[in-house]
Design goal:
The complex is a heterodimer.
Chain A: H1 2-8, H2 10-14, E1 16-25, H3 29-39, E2 44-48, E3 51-56, E4 59-64, E5 78-81, H4 85-94, E6 99-108, E7 112-120, E8 126-134
Parallel strand pairs in A: 1-4, 5-8
Antiparallel strand pairs in A: 2-3, 3-4, 6-7, 7-8
Chain B: H1 2-6, E1 11-18, H2 22-32, E2 37-41, E3 44-49, E4 52-57, E5 71-75, H3 78-87, E6 91-92, E7 97-102, E8 105-113, E9 119-127
Parallel strand pairs in B: 1-4, 5-9
Antiparallel strand pairs in B: 2-3, 3-4, 6-8, 7-8, 8-9
The chains are: A alpha/beta, B alpha+beta.
């Protein structure tokens, strides 16, 4: 066990490959389904009873009611990657999505600038769009 | 089609997780869960989980001060992973159990808490011989 841990590290010992699923509480499932399918454009995988499952780049998003009062709280902020943060922001605005923070430069990383847009989903959860813009490809309008 | 491509939400880049004690949470995600620690920036602590960044963060406003969404961590052997996590100090809520019989595989889950009281889960897709 010790030999394995010292060679491969704890991550390999526990064996976490990645995040397979994230659960998000939806107080109105048809409304949440419409938002994530029609506004955000994520593929709806299937529905099962009062649950709806979406795919987001290999991670499953599960929407449904809180199974216990303790779990009835807003979602963690999920940061969705988009190639063009300005175009994606415009897309949300045109569909009436409530914007919490317009496109803005959050951090200058070594080789790229990190841009984000804050918005609310149909259930009142705060979410973000994020985009890593390479320094060399900096649009002049974004300066 | 062009505008659809430029606004497409391809994947999740990051997930924010509330931590009232960022040092304590950093120790848990690094030493108990065994995730690679990327870097620390003030009250923010960043981990990698299979290409998705986890950001441990102290809530700035009361509105943000709520537990994390349940994140389901994918593992190959759920019983072994549970034993190792438990031995490392994670508190489990239940035993591994089949939560759904999917076409071709059984979906196993078991729930536990991180150092901040967030409910998390291990999940494993176990192929069913046809």
């Amino acid at each position: 066990m010790n030999a394995t841990a010292s060679h491969a590290g704890m991550a390999h010992a526990i064996g976490i490959d990645g995040i397979g699923q994230i659960s998000i509480i939806a107080h109105d499932l048809p409304r949440a389904t419409a938002f994530y399918r029609d506004v955000l454009g994520l593929p709806l995988l299937f529905t099962a009873g009062n649950l709806a499952f979406f795919d987001c780049g290999g991670v499953r998003l599960m929407f449904g009611p809180a199974s216990a009062p303790e779990l009835d709280h807003p979602s963690s902020i999920l940061y969705f990657r988009v190639p063009d943060v300005q175009a994606a922001h415009e897309h949300l605005v045109n569909r009436g999505v409530k914007i919490e923070a317009p496109p803005r430069l959050i951090a200058r990383m070594e080789t790229y600038d990190l841009w984000m847009v804050g918005f609310r989903d149909s259930e009142g959860n705060i979410m973000q769009l994020m985009s890593e813009v390479p320094r060399s490809a900096q649009p002049s309008s974004a300066a | 089609m062009n505008s659809q491509e430029s606004t497409a939400l391809a994947r999740i880049g990051q997930i924010a997780i509330n931590a009232h004690d960022v040092d304590r949470a950093t120790a848990f995600y690094r030493d108990v869960l065994g995730l690679p620690h990327l870097f620390r920036a003030g009250q923010l602590s960043f981990f990698d989980c299979g290409g998705v960044r986890l950001m441990l963060d102290k809530p700035e406003k009361p509105e943000f001060d709520h537990p994390s969404s349940i994140l389901y961590f994918q593992v190959g052997d759920i019983r072994a992973a549970r034993e190792r996590l438990k031995a490392a100090g994670a508190k489990f809520e239940d035993e591994p159990h089949v939560i759904a019989e999917m076409p071709g595989y059984d979906l196993w889950m078991t729930f536990f808490r991180d150092s901040e009281g967030n409910l998390l889960a291990l999940m494993s897709e176990v192929a069913r011989p046809s």
